[in-house]
Amino acid sequence: MPIEKKPMPSSTRFSRQQIAAAKAAAPVKTAGKSRIDWQQATATHGGGVAATLGGLRKTRGPNKKPAKEQVAIRLDQELVSALRASGPGWQTRVNTVLKDWMASQPAVRTP
C-alpha cells in the first residue's frame, strides 16, 4: 500500500515586514466608505472577468529559432544527476555537445 505524501503548502509564509507593508497598502475606511486607488484598475470591455484575465495573460512571442523536436531517451541516473547539478541550461548544453560530436564524425553515405 503506497504511503501518501503530506501536501505541500501552496505559498510561503510572509515576513513581518511583508505583513506590515500589506496592512499599510490596504484601503483606509472612513465613515463606512473605503478609499481605493483606481489608478491601477483594469476595465472590462465586454466578456466579463474571464475575457479580461485572458487578455492579461502573457503569451510567448513568435519562435525566433528553428523548432526543436522533443524526444525521450534513457540515460544513466548518474549522468542525469550530474547534468542537472550543473545548473540551469543543462539540456541546451547537452544539445551543444551532441552537435559538436556529430560535426566531428565522418559523413555517413547512404546507398
What do these coordinates show?
There is one protein chain. The chain has 111 residues and is mainly alpha-helical. The protein has a domain at 70-103. It is 39% helix and 5% strand. It contains four helices and two strands. The longest helix has 15 residues, at 90-104.
Oligomer: single chain
Secondary structural class: mainly alpha
Give the C-alpha Rg.
Answer: 26 Å
Q: Which ranges are low-confidence, i.e. pLDDT below 50, for 5 or more consecutive residues?
A: none
Report the span from N to C terminus: 56 Å
Strand adjacency order, main sheet? 1-2
Shape: elongated
Q: Can I get a quick summary?
A:
The protein is mainly α and 111 residues long. It has 4 helices and 2 strands. A two-stranded antiparallel sheet has the order 1-2.
Topology:
Blueprint: H1 16-25, E1 28-30, E2 33-35, H2 48-56, H3 77-85, H4 90-104
Descriptive terms for the model:
elongated, 4 helices, 111 residues, mainly alpha
